[in-house]
Amino acid sequence: MIWLLKKWVEKWVEFRVFRQTMLAWVGEGGRPVSSGVSQSRADMCLSCPHNWRGIVSQETASDAAKRLMEAKNRLKMSVRGEDGLYTCDLCHCYLPLKIHVPWIHIRRHQREETRTAIMIGKADCWQLKG
Q1: What secondary structure does DSSP assign to 39-93, as a single string?
Q2: How many other C-beta atoms are found inside a 10 Å radius of the C-beta of residue 80?
């Protein structure tokens, strides 16, 4: 039971980091990466075993994430296969949003523990390049 609680707390910390990343990105103009970069990232995530449906989906996302998704949709920021993107099991971020965020914002807020988990779990992840 303690292990489960510890995992839940860890995921909550990562959700907060994702939220901080999104707020920083939007606060600095919210300019997305090019559609080609977003699609390339999405393609990697779509075939990744860490693209996990169980943490957050569009239906269960927080109000803030839902508002960001609405803004993303109004700006027509979409990729092929987007309905198959969920949450990364390594960084715990909501992929339909994260694939559009410039790498500098991701790296600025990404915890070293998360970066290590990604390196171990998916060494060729786009989140490690930039």
Answers
A1: HHHHHHHHT-TTEETTS--TTTS-HHHHHHHHHHHHTT---TTGGG--EETTT--
A2: 10
Structural domain boundaries, residue 36: 2-128
Q: Count up the domains in the chain and report the number.
A: 1
For 35-57, the pLDDT digits (tens) are 999 999 999 999 999 998 765 54
Does this model's pTM top 0.90?
A: no
**Residues whose CB falls within 8 Å of the CB of residue 56, separated by 6 or more in sequence, listed in order:** 15, 65, 86, 87, 94
pLDDT in tens, 4-22: 445 544 555 566 666 666 6
